[in-house]
Amino acid sequence: MQHESPIKRRPSTRIYVGDVPIGDGAPISVQSMTNTRTTDVDATVAQIQSLEKVGADIVRVSVPTMDAAEAFKQIKQQVSVPLVADIHFDYRIALKVAEYGVDCLRINPGNIGKEDRIRAVVDCARDKNIPIRIGVNGGSLEKDIQEKYGEPTAEALVESAMRHVDILDRLNFDQFKVSVKASDAFLAIDSYRLLANKIDQPLHLGITEAGGARAGSVKSAIGLGILLSEGIGDTLRVSLAANPVEEIKVGFDILKSLRIRSRGINFIACPTCSRQEFDVIATVNALEERLEDVLTPMDVSLIGCVVNGPGEAEAAHLGLAGSKNKSALYEDGKRLKERLDNNALLDQLEAKIRAKASVIEQSGRIKINQIEE
Ligand code: SF4
């Protein structure tokens, strides 16, 4: 039941994206990015709201044109989750969205162009308390760095990142975070490890273009999981060729697996075999879907028989251990007198889990929907 994570986080400075703290021990935030046309305000707002509903702490929106910047203004007025504007090259767009209340700029200072333009963006960010994310990507390294290293290497990614970092240092601006993403998990891992020792700022983790929902989730879980287990990473995005809502869910599942941060129900279910006394797979799938709106962190074990059922149930907030006709129910590790009919589990289990979630929430032991300091 909600064991502490043994991970020791890398010390870092802290920035705030809107009201979300990043770095210096703040809970690791989970973000995603919209894939609607930003100029389609209604569709983008709807997508941001669906991301917020599944727990997104921060949402990034790409702002490629001045028209998109105008749309961003309207979007910003209709949502409450902090927004990062993704901008490449055009410093005027950065100034515009800053005026419209953006919470973070993803822009690489080295790509903005002339010194006066860089200074204009950085001064504006400083005045308005807007942090910057430097985002380096293995697929879009500067030409001279590509030539120097021949191929994207960790050193190449970090050299590129440090160019941008040095510009901000020179302008005395320290409110930034950095990402060095690559689609290869090992390259990303090596790059983040290297960078973690070079700067004090928080790190934004990601395995870029990780792939489709299944393979991309596995690759991200391995790449991000290794870094997170070493204490590296302060905010993350899982990049999937899938609905961005999946990115948030997978991001939380990664944090949940490492016991770093919980949101929603952690189902413990056995893989099933011929001993199962109720249909475990159908039950867990149906409950996952029915209970998507429950954000209270809690453990629910659904185990098909008495081989592992009682043991798992004893460690969960609620547990079901399959047995003939009627299965045994556990709450906070204790077996209850009440048993549930194996043929009518779903409605009863849903009601019991909801009731337990509200007890946990009301007990005030776990605050949800907010990032705690
Ligand atoms: S807990 Fe029971 S039903 Fe589930 S896999 Fe193990 S032996 Fe099979």
UniProtKB/TrEMBL annotation:
Keywords: 4Fe-4S, Iron, Iron-sulfur, Isoprene biosynthesis, Metal-binding, Oxidoreductase
Free-text comment on the cofactor: Binds 1 [4Fe-4S] cluster.
Its EC number(s): 1.17.7.3
Gene Ontology terms: biological process: isopentenyl diphosphate biosynthetic process, methylerythritol 4-phosphate pathway; terpenoid biosynthetic process
Coiled-coil region(s): none
One Pfam family this sequence matches: GcpE_C
SUPFAM superfamilies in alphabetical order: Dihydropteroate synthetase-like, Nitrite and sulphite reductase 4Fe-4S domain-like
Protein's pathway: Isoprenoid biosynthesis; isopentenyl diphosphate biosynthesis via DXP pathway; isopentenyl diphosphate from 1-deoxy-D-xylulose 5-phosphate: step 5/6
UniProt domain IspG C-terminal: residue ranges: 266-354
MF annotations from Gene Ontology: 4 iron, 4 sulfur cluster binding; 4-hydroxy-3-methylbut-2-en-1-yl diphosphate synthase activity (ferredoxin); 4-hydroxy-3-methylbut-2-enyl-diphosphate synthase activity (flavodoxin); iron ion binding
Residues engaged in binding [4Fe-4S] cluster: 270, 273, 305, 312
IspG TIM-barrel domain sequence ranges: 13-251
Assigned protein family: Belongs to the IspG family.
Physiological role: Converts 2C-methyl-D-erythritol 2,4-cyclodiphosphate (ME-2,4cPP) into 1-hydroxy-2-methyl-2-(E)-butenyl 4-diphosphate.
Protein name as it appears in the record: 4-hydroxy-3-methylbut-2-en-1-yl diphosphate synthase (flavodoxin)
Organism the protein comes from: Vibrio albus
